[in-house]
Write a structure and sequence with these properties.
Blueprint lengths: L7 H10 L4 H19 L2 E4 L1 H16 L10 E5 L26 H8 L3 E6 L11 E2 L3 E2 L1 E2 L2 E5 L5 H9 L4 E6 L5 H7 L2 E4 L26 E6 L2 H11 L27 E4 L10 H16 L3 E3 L8 H19 L5 H9 L8 H8 L4 H21 L5 E4 L19 E4 L2 E4 L4 H8 L5 E8 L5 E7 L6 H14 L17
Parallel strand pairs: 2-3, 2-8, 11-12, 11-13
Antiparallel strand pairs: 1-3, 4-5, 6-7, 8-10, 9-10, 9-16, 13-17, 14-15, 16-17
Helix pairs in contact: 2-3, 5-6, 7-14, 9-11, 9-12, 9-13
Protein name: Amidase
Pfam families: Amidase
InterPro entries: Amidase_CS, Amidase_dom, AS_sf, FAAH2
């Protein structure tokens, strides 16, 4: 039996039936990593000895009659999460030897659910890129084409899932960091509603793991099936027990609908600030066709959709003002001078990013007030629609680009080039107002690269886009393993 690409749900059923043991699944995953990860470089911090011990404990617990949500399932964890005894560097060389003494709250939840942690997955420097490479751990390659990026900043996790290195992974998302790697690698990911899942212990070293919520930032699940996302989200969801968790628990409302024909869906594939590449547009259209074929009400336009240009501007302002404030910038005065020299007529995304890098607190409050207007606009839209389908980025995975100045990088969209960070406009659409968004694969581009889309849902109604993802998975076929992974596993051999 080939287990390596089975879903977590299928593996749990096999474990409960006694068809396989956690030790066997864990050894199989480790063998796969040792065989294939030299070419992919997804697992930057292996933890195989402790994983084997956890697998033995899981089998013993099951033999005693225990059953937990992830008991015995091999998983990986993004490098940016604190795991006691393992390095947490965020790819920053000066913290190469930093190892926290306690687990992040989400790592603790994984362990409490019975998961077996195989190790940590690669990230970009400071989690500040749409690719995953750094001086400590090197470059993570896309399993479909090693000359292309796996995405960032959860690129190691997406590449690991696509390669069969564990059934689940946990990542984080501030600028598409869950959704973009999923799109590039052909797997599933879910960006939860802002504040739904506690983030303590997902902090840049050597910062203390305090229960601080960073604007825009979330932690969330990655998987090879839509149902597995829901399984893992149920483990991750809930407030921090040190703060809000003292006062309340989370009970997510059920999905608005169970049948595809009952959904009302808005499909958007054009952005005023950046074109949509032909491969991604084709992926959006495949989803629209599947929705219509399933009887869903599909619309392409509505006056209820918040203004996409202003949404992108607000998102870039919030993103870059927050990022610069958290990470020291040596040339801050130079940035102030450059921002002051901008023409008042320059309303490009590049200009918005530069101005945001030197925001005053008054500037930020004004921008945040504009965000609240957009949030209300989304509430009005979701009174008429259940979900919005749109791109995650304008293109499939692009070739590695390690220019040390990302502001000089360019993104090729069907032969024309655009500023590198302009591709964040789509990822920022649900991030700015804090909405949930589920990334799903839609098939392959003519070049043989995965193409995904995101399903945006109403705030705290995460089960609605997740259920829609499940129904679309049945129509579209879901995850496909890259061709290099077709060699038999240890168990099958």
């Amino acid at each position: 039996m080939e287990w390596i690409f089975q879903t977590a749900e299928e593996l749990l059923a096999a474990l409960r039936a006694g068809e396989v043991s956690s030790v066997e699944l864990t050894d199989d995953a480790i063998a796969r990593i040792e065989r294939d990860d030299k070419a992919i470089n997804a697992i930057c911090v292996p933890d195989f000895d402790r994983a084997r011990a956890a697998a033995r404990n899981a089998d013993q617990a099951r033999a005693r009659g225990e059953d937990r949500p992830l008991l015995g399932i091999p998983v990986t964890v993004k490098e940016s999460y604190d795991v006691a005894g393992l390095p947490t560097t965020w790819g920053m060389p000066q913290f190469r030897d930093y190892a926290p003494a306690e687990d992040a709250v989400q790592v603790s939840r994984l362990k409490a659910a019975g998961a077996v942690i195989l190790g940590k997955t690669n990230v970009p420097l400071g989690l500040q890129d749409i690719q995953s490479f750094n001086e400590i751990y090197g470059t993570t390659n896309n399993p479909w084409d090693h000359d292309r990026t796996s995405g960032g900043s959860s690129g190691g996790s997406a590449a690991a899932l696509a390669s069969g290195f564990g059934a689940l992974s946990i990542g984080s998302d501030l600028a598409g960091s869950l959704r973009t790697p999923a799109h590039f690698c052909g797997v599933y990911a879910h960006k939860p509603t802002l504040g739904l899942a506690a983030t303590r212990g997902m902090v840049a070293p050597p910062g203390p793991a305090w229960p601080v919520d960073i604007d825009l930032a979330v932690v969330g699940p990655m998987a090879r099936s839509a149902h597995d996302l829901m399984l893992l989200l149920d483990v991750m969801a809930g407030p921090d027990p040190l703060t809000h968790g003292k006062g309340y628990d989370v009970t997510l409302p059920p999905a608005r609908h169970e049948q595809l024909g009952d959904f009302r869906v808005l499909v958007v594939d054009e952005h005023p600030l950046i074109p949509t590449g032909s491969a991604v547009r084709a992926g959006v259209n495949r989803v629209a066709d599947a929705l219509a074929d399933g009887g869903a009400r599909v619309e392409r336009r509505t006056p209820l959709l918040p203004d996409l240009t202003e949404a992108a501007m607000i998102y870039m302002q919030l993103l870059f003002s927050g990022s610069v404030a958290r990470f020291p910038v040596d040339a801050y005065e130079e940035l102030r001078t450059r921002a002051a020299a901008l023409s008042a007529d320059d309303q490009s995304l590049d200009a918005a990013r530069l101005r945001a890098m030197v925001f005053s607190h008054r500037d930020w409050i004004e921008t945040n007030n504009r965000r609240e207007i957009h949030r209300h606009g989304w509430r009005q839209l979701f009174a008429e629609f259940d979900a919005v389908v749109c791109p995650i980025t304008p293109t499939p995975a692009f070739p590695h680009d390690h220019n040390p100045n990302p502001l000089e990088r360019r993104l090729d969209i069907d032969g024309a080039t655009y500023p590198y960070f302009d591709q964040l406009a789509w990822a920022g659409l649900p991030t700015m107002p804090g909405l949930p968004a589920t990334a799903i694969p839609t098939g392959l581009s003519p070049e043989g690269l995965p193409v995904g889309v995101q399903l945006i849902g109403p705030m705290f109604e995460d089960r609605t886009p997740l259920r829609l993802a499940e129904l679309l998975e049945q129509k579209l076929g879901g995850f496909q393993p890259p061709s290099f992974t077709n060699q038999p596993s240890r168990l099958e051999a």
